[in-house]
Amino acid sequence: MFKSEEEYLKAYNPEDFDRLSMTADILILSISDEVVSNYRKSSNKKMSVLLVKRDDYPFKNKWCLPGGFLDINEDLEECPKRILQRETNLKDIYLEQLYTFGGVKRDPRMRVVSTSYMALIDKNKLKYKLSNNASWFNIEYFEDKNTIDFYLDNGQETLKFTIKKKLYEQTTDRYKFEILKNEDLAFDHPLVIISGIERLKNKISYTDIVFNMMPEEFTLGDLQRVYEVILNKKLLDPAFRRIIADKVEKTTHVQTGAGHRPSALFKYKNPKR
Q: What's the burial of 113, exposed, middle or buried (CB within 10 Å: 0-12/13-18/19+)?
């Protein structure tokens, strides 16, 4: 037995302990207008995710989320900012911690634990040009009782993976996820994507995060389409109006020139004002 901490530290040998590495993975989601050829139609909204193509092994030439190793002298919160700018050329984006992924075999090189971060932005408002190895992929997914099939498309490639879901907390309707099929994305990044989307679905029920995606003034139709993209389901107009009744206020302005009857414009009713 050691009699003091000083005695213990003198005898301490790092080689007596197994080693692991820490990484940060960054999930950037965007909900933005899709180009519509018919000017009489309202703009469609699409959810998309920012991916980068790996240029080295393992998973060379596979797409993945921006990510990298934590430097030994680096603060954990600074790591994702550095990695995001290095791999995508984006900066000044608010990131929040999502989840820690620690599957034993998630990286074929060594034991790696990753802290993931996420952000919800409008890609059309970005000030910086993306790096050549980065691309936005539109997200579509189809869910049944036990599985979720994902399709990510950037106009040139379509990536596919399937997630198995299992209810593990019935009172809060929370699920545990695992990868059933995945040949296109590196590492366990399908789990990061589905975890971020589920977090986003939950957050719009108790926060006003969705208004980060909206201009200062907007139609209720545009706002409803953002909610529908996040929730991945159609909302009945009366139900949607009840959801946002206390969150918006009507302005004296209307939207014109969109090829249809003018629509009233609303703005976010910030409770902190």
A: middle
